[in-house]
Structures are given as structure tokens and as C-alpha cells.
């Protein structure tokens, strides 16, 4: 009787080990089958039309919609989009809290040293001049000599552009004073329309076209005076190098297929790729 009891215990223990092994194998199999890596992407929550939160509380905008289409084509990754302010997003990218950020960013030497940047751009930021009736013949930065320019942010790209122009043209200087007054784009456009300032220099991807139409502003817009390609920035880690390459490939395909041009027309009101 003891012998049979011992055999029964051994048999039960064997079945238990087999079941554990089967469960372990099944778990590993599911992990392998669903081995999709989650990529946390920080985007601005209130930077319409680049990236913003719609009336349903969902993130949308030009770069957000690009990210969604890239995500659809990368089977090994799942993008989790998070609304984050600009400075917090870049800090999070530095620490690895976020794998990628999208903010209509330019490629610089400093950023190339710190981050992984896809070889393919996602669009272009077109620097334009916004003018009132009295100054509508202005078509270049040189034409702004003698004109009053709405104060640019002292840490922004517009300020750097104007400073660079003056450095390159010491005999033909632009007059402007930087300010961090924090006016909205709509408020700045209205100050130009009213004649308080002759001109406003800004990237065209801040919703100006929609504001001008909605507010029925009498504003004239120049052709681009500078064109800067924009890129996604990726946390610099070995595991992200392949991600960067795959994003580049998909972005090129989306350009070739005209998808990015369609999104540009939808959100910016113009095809920024015509200038590439």
C-alpha cells in the first residue's frame, strides 16, 4: 500500500512539473508573439496645428498624424503619445523617460551630438513675414530695413535669424528689440494689422493661416525667407538605432506616396514639401 502511495505521489509531482513547463513555454510563446516594443513619444498638447488636443480630448495635429501613420507601418513598435510641454519633453528625452519627442524641431550640431535623428525630415518650418497694408511690398529681410518689427522672443529662432542677418549685413541693419511678452500669435498678427508694427517674422506652422481667415485680418504674407527642415528626436540608446532607421524609411515612403503633402495641406493650408 505504501508502495502504491509513493508511486502516486511521484506521478502527481511529474504531472505538476510538466504542467509548469507547459505554462512557462506558453507564456514565453505569447511574449514572443506579441513582442511589440512600446515607444513613449512626447508631443505638445497645445501647439495647433503642429500638435494639440481636440474637442474630444484626443491628441491630433500635423506631427501627431504623421506619428500615427508611421506607427501603423512599424509592426514591431507601438507608439504611446503623451502631451508634454516643450522643456519637460526635451528633459525627459535626455533622461530616457521618453523615447522620442516631436515638436517641429530643427537639426543642430548640438542635437546631433545628444540625440538620434532620423535621416529623413518630417516636414519644413517656413519662416515668413506677416505685413500690414502699408508694408505689403516687403518680400525679404532686406526689405525690412527701416521698418518696425514686432519684438521677437530673445531665445527663439526668429531672434537668431534677425541677429544673423545683421551680422552679415553691417551696413544695412534691421532695428528690433527682443521681448518675452508672451503674446499669442493672434494678438501679434492684430498688432501688425493695426499698424502698431509694420511686420512680424514667424515660422508659418503656428496656425497663422487659420487665424487670419477666422479673424478676417487684413494681413499680407511673404514667401519663405528661410526654410528649416523639421525632425523627430530620439533618445540616444543602442536599442533605438534601428528604430531611427526604420522611421526614416517609413517617412521617405510617406513622402513618395504624397501622404505627408496631404497632411501638410490639411493642417498648414499649404504643401511645405514644394520647397524641398
Descriptors:
3-stranded antiparallel beta sheet; 42% helix; 9 helices; 7-stranded mixed beta sheet
| Helical proportion, percent range | 40-55%
The pLDDT mean sits at 88
| Annotation, overall tally of beta strands | 10
How can the largest sheet be summarized? 7 strands, mixed
Report the principal-axis shape: globular
Give the uncertain stretches in residue-range form.
1-33
In terms of structural class, how would the helical and strand content be classed? alpha+beta
* Distance between the amino and carboxyl termini: 88 Å
Question: What would you report as the Rg, rounded to the nearest angstrom?
Answer: 27 Å
- SS strand fraction: 15-25%
Alpha plus pi helix count: 9
Element pattern in H and E? HEEEEHEHEHEHHEHEEHH
Can you describe what's shown?
It contains 9 helices and 10 strands. It has 276 residues and is α+β, with helices and mostly antiparallel strands. Strands 1, 5, 6, 7, 8, 9 and 10 form a 7-stranded mixed β-sheet that branches. A hairpin with a 3-residue loop joins strand 2 and strand 3. It is globular and about 60 Å long. It starts with a helix and ends in an 8-residue tail after the last helix.
Question: Mind sketching the topology for me?
Answer:
Elements lengths: L1 H32 L3 E7 L2 E2 L3 E3 L5 E2 L1 H12 L3 E7 L2 H10 L4 E7 L2 H6 L8 E9 L25 H12 L16 H9 L5 E5 L4 H8 L4 E2 L4 E9 L6 H16 L2 H10 L8
Parallel strand pairs: 1-5, 1-6
Antiparallel strand pairs: 2-3, 3-4, 6-10, 7-8, 7-9, 7-10
Helix pairs in contact: 2-8
Amino acid at each position: 500500500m505504501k508502495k502504491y502511495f509513493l508511486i502516486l505521489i511521484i506521478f502527481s509531482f511529474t504531472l505538476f512539473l510538466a504542467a509548469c513547463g507547459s505554462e512557462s513555454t506558453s507564456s514565453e510563446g505569447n511574449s514572443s508573439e506579441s513582442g511589440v516594443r512600446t515607444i513613449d513619444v512626447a508631443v505638445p498638447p497645445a501647439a495647433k496645428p503642429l500638435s494639440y488636443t481636440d474637442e474630444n480630448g484626443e491628441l491630433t495635429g500635423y506631427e501627431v498624424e504623421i506619428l500615427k501613420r508611421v506607427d501603423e507601418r512599424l509592426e514591431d513598435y507601438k507608439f504611446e503619445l503623451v502631451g508634454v510641454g516643450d522643456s519637460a519633453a526635451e528633459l525627459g528625452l535626455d533622461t530616457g523617460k521618453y523615447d522620442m519627442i516631436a515638436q517641429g524641431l530643427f537639426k543642430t550640431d548640438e542635437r546631433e551630438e545628444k540625440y538620434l535623428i532620423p535621416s529623413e525630415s518630417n516636414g519644413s518650418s517656413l519662416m515668413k513675414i506677416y505685413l500690414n497694408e502699408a508694408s505689403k511690398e516687403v518680400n525679404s529681410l532686406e526689405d525690412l530695413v527701416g521698418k518696425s518689427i514686432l519684438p521677437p522672443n530673445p531665445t527663439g529662432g526668429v531672434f537668431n535669424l534677425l541677429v544673423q542677418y545683421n551680422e552679415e549685413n553691417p551696413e544695412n541693419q534691421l532695428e528690433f528689440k527682443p521681448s518675452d511678452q508672451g503674446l499669442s500669435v493672434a494678438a501679434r498678427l492684430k498688432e501688425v494689422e493695426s499698424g502698431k508694427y509694420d511686420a512680424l517674422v514667424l515660422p508659418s506652422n503656428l496656425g497663422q493661416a487659420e487665424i487670419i481667415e477666422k479673424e478676417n485680418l487684413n494681413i499680407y504674407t511673404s514667401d519663405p525667407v528661410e526654410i528649416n527642415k523639421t525632425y523627430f528626436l530620439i533618445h540616444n540608446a543602442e536599442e533605438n538605432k534601428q528604430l531611427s532607421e526604420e522611421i526614416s524609411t517609413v517617412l521617405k515612403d510617406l513622402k513618395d506616396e504624397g501622404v505627408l503633402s496631404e497632411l501638410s495641406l490639411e493642417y498648414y493650408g499649404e504643401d511645405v514639401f514644394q520647397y524641398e
